[in-house]
Amino acid sequence: MLTYTLRRILGMIPTLLLISVVCFTVIQLQPGSFLDQYLEDPRVTKETVASITRQLGLDQPLWVQYLTWIKGIVTQGDFGYSFVNGRPVSSLIWERLGWTVFLAVLTLIVSWVIAVPLGIYTALNRYSKRSVALNFFGYVSLATPDFLVALLLIALVLNLGGTNVGGLFSPQFIDAPWSGAKVMDLLGHLWIPMIAIGLEGVAGLMRQMRASMLDVIGQDYVRTARAKGLAGRRVLWKHAVRNAVNPLISLAGLSLPSLISGTIIASIVLNLPTIGPFLYDSLLNKDQYVAMTLLLFSALLLLIGNLLSDLALAWADPRVRFE
């Protein structure tokens, strides 16, 4: 297993290098540039624009710009310079990336804790009224955009007398040092983004678990276990659930980046300090190094998520071996 893990990690290097080329090419293909705002301003002379172009390194050939960017990442951990914020990209993304991963992982864990039992229940009681109601809830949740759920939750809280419904902290705790009161304030704000971002994931996982359980409980080895007189609970958890959950583990690696890149509008609505709104703003402002870095980190999270899901699948299913 260790050899396989090291081989996968080493294989990420050329993959990330290729992804960096794609990210750089896509960003360069977008029409216009950051300098357009200066060209359209009659108060800015052409000499000033040329000077800014040289300072930002945008007068260099594209291949030189790419190699300079990659060299800075590999040798110094320098992801470039934010044209809009006037600061290095690395100083801007770490805090947002931390909150992004925190929200994504927490939402993923809560979604699994809720969705897997619901999927098992709806599979074992597929004709009951509760199962029908849960399936209907799943269809509605899958069809409802996350930003609409966020708006409905904001309206609900405001109608109930709440005030601070955006962000992760109340204004007095944003720059305050960590304390018990700040943690409680975070927990008080955290439930809205978790529901808005995780509701669709809960519904999708529940449907997948239900379909997988319905397929597994009809298999011969489950019927054989029952015929041998094993207890129903033992048959359910050791034979049925253990095999039914494997497809969900395989797909878990894809959930992490989708929670980041697929919730940009909801993050904007809820004013969350994540990389989704930051990526959106960088694309609008043509802040190329910020956009390329965030896209590269999203790809890295996808590779890490797939590796972790493969390792978890090998741990959960003894039939899977990579050596």
Automatic annotation (TrEMBL):
Which InterPro entries does the entry link to? Answer: BPD_transp_1_N, MetI-like, MetI-like_sf
Membrane topology label: Multi-pass membrane protein
Please indicate which superkingdom the organism of origin belongs to: Bacteria
Q: Name one Pfam family in it.
A: BPD_transp_1
GO CC annotations, alphabetized: plasma membrane
Q: Where in the cell is it found?
A: Cell membrane
- Give residue ranges for domain ABC transmembrane type-1: 97-313
Where would you find the membrane-spanning parts of this chain?
9-29, 97-124, 136-158, 186-206, 248-269, 289-316
Keyword DNA repair on this protein? no
Primary location recorded for the protein, binned into one broad class: membrane
Q: Which UniProt keywords apply?
A: Cell membrane, Membrane, Transmembrane, Transmembrane helix, Transport
**A Gene Ontology biological process annotation?**
transmembrane transport
Q: Does the keyword Cytoplasm apply?
A: no
Family label: Belongs to the binding-protein-dependent transport system permease family.
Q: What is this protein called?
A: ABC transporter permease
